Each structure stands twice: as C-alpha cells, then as structure tokens.
C-alpha cells in the first residue's frame, strides 16, 4: 500500500530540508507520496503582493520577485521551467495592477508558479542526497477538482476518483512530491485551492489509496495540552478521538483543515501529527476512539481577538434564520450564536476585525421593527476545556469555574457544545493567559 504523508508549511523551510531528507529515507525508505505545503512566510508574501496589485501599485511585481529570490538562492531542479512560470506570473501581476481586479484563473497561475518554485527547490536538494527517482506533480495533477458554481469548493467524490487514477499511475518505488496549492475546475482552468487546501490534497489521496493512516509532519511534537507559547510545560497529547481533535481544530484550524478531518473520520483513516525533527517517533494519534484519562480533560484551547455582538429586539426568534443566512452570504465568519430564553437577545461571537462589517450589515438590512438596538463587547477571548472524559463526569464545570474564580476573573459568557466534549467561557482578553494557566493547572498540570 502506498504511504501518504504531508509536510506542513511550518516544516517546509530551508533550515528543515535535511530533516525532510532524513524523514523520507528513514521513515519511508525513500518511497511514497509526499504532499508539500508552501512555507508559511511565503504564503503571507504572496497575499501581500496580490493586495498591492489590487491597489494598483507597481511594487506588486517587485514583491513577487522577492518571493522568487527566496527560492532561487537554494537553486531549482528545472530552472528553465520555473523561470518561464515566474515570468508569466510577473505579467499577471502587471495586468492586475492595471485593471485592479483578480480572477480565479489569474490567481491560479500565480499559485501554480509558487508550486513550481517549492517543488523544484526541494527536488534539487533531495536529488543531491538520495539516489532515487523523484517525481513532482501539481495539486491539480493529483486529481483535485473544484466546482466553480459553488464558490470553488472541492468536489470530494470526483477528486477521489481522479486521485485513484493518479495513485495507480505513479511509480511506487519512487519519491513522489505533490503540491498543495492548485486544483482544476470542471472546464480545465487551474485555480488556487482554498485555505487548508494541502490538507485536503493529502486527505483525498490517502482515501484514494485506501490507506489506513495519514502522516502530518510539522515543527511541533504533536497536538499539545495548551498553547506552548502560553503554557511552557504543556504536554504532548498521545491519543485523541476524531471528535476531540475537531473541537481543538475549531479553535485553531491552521493545524489541520477541519473539513479534511471530517473526511478522515468518515473513512476511519487515522491521522498522526508528528515532529519533522523526530522522524522515527510518533506524535499525536487521532483515531475513532480516544483514551479517557483520569484527568478527563485532554486540552485547554483558546481563541483571542474576538468580540461579542449582541442584537436586541422583539421577534428575533423568527428573524434568526434570515440573519444567519445574511452573514453567510456576506462571507462574515462567526463562531457561536446563542439566544436567551425569551428570544429578545442574540449573542454572536465574531472576529474583532469584523465588528464594523457586522455593524454595517445590521444597520442597513435589519434595524427597525424586530431589531431595536445592539451592543458590542470588544476585545474578548474564548477559553474551553476539551475531552471525551467529561461525558457523564460530575463536578467538571464547578472545577472549571472555580479555578477561574480563584483568579478573580470575570466571566462574560458561558458556552458548551451539545457533544459534552467542550465546556468554555468568554472573558476579557487581558485575563486570557491567566485563565488558561489556572485551568491547565487545575485539570492537566
């Protein structure tokens, strides 16, 4: 069976190229399919270059040249191909700067060029170290297809069928590097995959190969019991259930695409999140059943930079479906929506940066008979404890809120998922680190 592994953007860095080589040789005996993300800092550079172009600034092309130079200093396996692709992207940037618009097919060519740079640089390095054939493929060549009518969503069944053909066609005794940035539309145009697209590429290829597992290689030991930047002695979590992992990913989807996790869950494919610097060791295993520890809580998750937008009025119960639909149509992200028993208030937890967008939408479309007012609590943080062991275990909530109360932290809102895997609260951001530390100490440390 063909091994499938993904190397995340945090691990695809020049300083990690030797680690990637050791991983492929020691763990996979220099064979398999490796989905390669673009380095995280490069993604940010591309977005900035496109923003410059949309503002009509000529510096956009120069910003993209800087991306090219970051790769070029390490050399390309096929310099002519990469240069042709790069020059085509420069022309696209100049066009975007003139028309101040970008279309999916234009954006797709830019990201195709970046895929070329990433794959060609890694292939050059590996070719100098490993005496095996190395093949490279774009994401769209691995079978990824999207539906342009529904907002370029990945067509799961079609992509799996195409992925099966791809898996059958490749040399199983070679190293096969696959990009994670591009897909095809039904009319054969190359477009950029949505955020977290490389996770979908890896997941769909694992399903296509009928693999029982998917390896994700990052620059961390695995999933941790809390953010190590806040809790220095956070523990690596050895085993999680799919449901526990999905709860954690709802706070930090950058770790792994939640949609990809749902697909793995539906097929029973285990996910291993491992450290690129420890190629022989396993990190966190995510599978159908978790392990209920005596501590009952596996992780403390948090999300900062939030706001609570409260809508006040009569008849909100009947208006709520229209409200939520308007948010979705306007591409406004929200995390939690709650309503009080009387139906006179609706509380929406949103990103702080979206407050003005929400305010404008409410005032323009809904202020009137059913919505009389709104209020905003800015700069809040959400904290939750997560674990299968909380189901049916008495006293968990009292311990949670007791730990917070002892630190004299005021809780603005309490939240709990219907799965009983998650109990949380919302507090002022200034108290976030203190609350996480108190809760982690109470349940895990």
What does this structure look like?
The protein contains 13 helices and 18 strands. With 445 residues, the protein is an alpha/beta fold. The strands form three sheets. It has an eight-stranded mixed β-sheet, sandwiched between helices. A six-stranded antiparallel β-sheet has the order 14-15-13-16-18-17. A hairpin with an 8-residue loop joins strand 11 (270-275) and strand 12. Helix 3 (59-72) runs antiparallel to helix 4, helix 7 runs parallel beside helix 9 and helix 8 runs antiparallel to helix 9 (258-267). The relative contact order is 0.10.
Write the layout of secondary structure elements.
Elements: E1 4-7, H1 17-26, E2 32-36, H2 40-54, H3 59-72, H4 79-99, H5 104-127, E3 134-137, E4 145-147, E5 153-154, H6 156-169, E6 175-179, E7 182-185, E8 190-192, H7 197-208, E9 213-218, E10 239-241, H8 242-251, H9 258-267, E11 270-275, E12 284-287, E13 299-312, H10 316-329, E14 334-339, E15 345-351, H11 355-366, E16 373-386, H12 396-406, E17 413-416, E18 422-428, H13 432-443
Parallel strand pairs: 1-2, 1-9, 2-6, 3-6, 4-7, 9-11, 10-12
Antiparallel strand pairs: 4-5, 7-8, 11-12, 13-15, 13-16, 14-15, 16-18, 17-18
Helix pairs in contact: 2-3, 2-4, 3-4, 3-5, 4-5, 6-7, 7-9, 8-9, 12-13
